[in-house]
Amino acid sequence: MDHPAWRPAFHIAPQHGWINDPNGLCHYRGRYHAFYQYTHDWPGSELRSWGHATSTDLLTWIDEGEALSPDTPEDRTGVWSGCAMIADGGRRMDIYYTGNVVLEGDYDHVHDGREANQILVTSEDGRSFSKKRVLMRPSDYPSTCTRHVRDPKVWEEGGELWMLLGARNRDGCGEALVYRSDDGVAWTHHHTIRSREPLGYMWECPNIVALEGKSYLAICPQGLESETLRRHNRWQAGYLPLDASIYETTLVDGEGFIEWDFGWDFYAPQIFSAGDGRSLLLGWMGTFDEDRSSAPDGLPWCHCLTLPRELSRAADGRLLQAPAREIEALRGTPADLGKSVQLPDHLADIVIDGIGGAGMLILDGALSIELSDALLTVSFADPEIAAGRTRRKVELPRPTRMLRVIVDRSTVEIYLNGGETVFSTRWFPKAAQLSVSSGIVCASSQVWPLIRRG
Description:
By secondary structure, this protein is mostly beta strands. It has one helix and 35 strands. The protein folds into two domains: 14-323, Glycosyl hydrolase domain, family 43 (Tachylectin-2, Chain A, 5 Propeller), CATH 2.115.10.20; 327-449, Exo-inulinase, domain 1 (Jelly Rolls, Sandwich). 45% of the residues are buried.
């Protein structure tokens, strides 16, 4: 059953099938391109291709169909994650990705029985792609690595090309491999980045973030222990401040790892540049956790991506995330929240500012967002609407003074203190209208309906 009322209006979601990691994010020839891990034949298959969507405004997305399929010996069990780099003075899109090969037999598929091949395809229009070219095979990685090496991130600086790869070493620790190249085809291992103390057994989806002269390494470490107020999901996504440039860093402080998002539904973000130079983040609004669903009631499509988020740097060095400013053009006539507001659709931008203490915002009488001291608690009152999500508490760096909540049908994204803390969740509302009620003492509170244009 499709449930049109649950299909997001502004988030990328598949028409049918499964979506996960965003890939190849870029701005090329006046359009944004978002590729993503995609399985059309879900449920029943886990064979990943790349889906493709384009936009001129980051909010209205055109489904461009399947871009890359597992059709060569080097990617026959999956076109896995990767990136796009705009090359040749903006005339060409170069896509780097990992071709996954899982061999049949009695293997552990960690130390043997798997191949991870780094592959290049190019495009001059963003829609048709060249023949696949294999750049690296398992023999090209350091001998200290297991067969888990993937998710290339490529960029240019100072006339040189650089690549980050996520890896798992033979000691059972995550790490990032740094490669350099003159032509984007022949790559040489430059150095490896490790944590002083173990930070998970595998680092997926590495990215480099550079803002205001400071650098950050973004990673998705697998295997971190859950704690009472953080690291709740099976796998986490976050970043590490660097004391030196990525080209000089070999050791990082794992204790400085900061999660991007504390919600039930967030993983594998990718950072890219907007047409105007902004640093944007787009993540997978889902997880592999099995105790909750993103396709209840036989929904024929599963998961979506987050809204694009603008990154900035706070005075204390923490990275802030804010919904891309383009969404403000979709705002209708605002209503003063007061105690409660009803909207005709589950499309809303809610802003509560000048918060003076503890309080609670409630959506549809079912989803509660509670603020108390330096603590955020998100909880569901209705198990059917939650689809396995229950209650989660998050410790905040400081008390909340500003709360912003964006509702796009079956998605809710919560931003505290200008994006200092972010919490993403799916939900599956039953009501035809969105009900918003607040008991938060504040200087101002407004609710804007969001209106699809065109």
